[in-house]
Amino acid sequence: MGRIVGAVLTGGASRRMNRTKALVPYRGAPLAARVLFALGDGGCDPVVLVGGDAEELAVLGFPVLPDRWPDEGPLGGVLSALGALGDAESVVVTACDLGELTGETVRRIIDGPPGAAVVVAFGTRRHPTLARYHSDVERDLEAIFTGGERSLMGALGALERRGVDVVDVTVEEQRLKNVNDAGDLAC
What we know:
By secondary structure, the protein is of the alpha/beta class. Helix content is about 30%, strand content about 20%. The protein has one domain: Spore Coat Polysaccharide Biosynthesis Protein SpsA, Chain A, CATH 3.90.550.10. The strands form two sheets. It has a seven-stranded mixed sheet, sandwiched between helices. It has a two-stranded antiparallel ribbon with strand order 2-3. A hairpin with a 3-residue loop joins strand 7 and strand 8 (about 125-135). It starts with a strand and ends with a helix.
């Protein structure tokens, strides 16, 4: 398998957290830092942030790619990451709020079926905020986005209807826990 980029989506509005969610301390480190390190530990290189205020996120010490479609949801962030792949084969994209993500979980996504265009984390349900996208899927995803879809779940369904191989890989549900509001910080 070729080089795999890790991308953390950091362009969300963080309305429920009332501050930049990527920088909220969780178990001793900013949420996005925990996710960045899990991607690196899992085998992604390089690891980048996608979207958000680059100046504010600079404290994390990782490159920040602009979101080509700000305020258009996570699908725009996925497309932004795919558009910045360069010579990489795939990108593992994750939300910045998966505070329990581990390198082992990322490795399960990376090691999913090599021929799959998209490998998606599955706990008790499909979690499109943790998935590996092969570079070949960019054109289909962009057409789906241009057609008005903004939901990652909807985009995965649209890819499947187009005959694109989207495969679920079982991971521990705990590793997919979203930290969405102040109440989640206490857990």
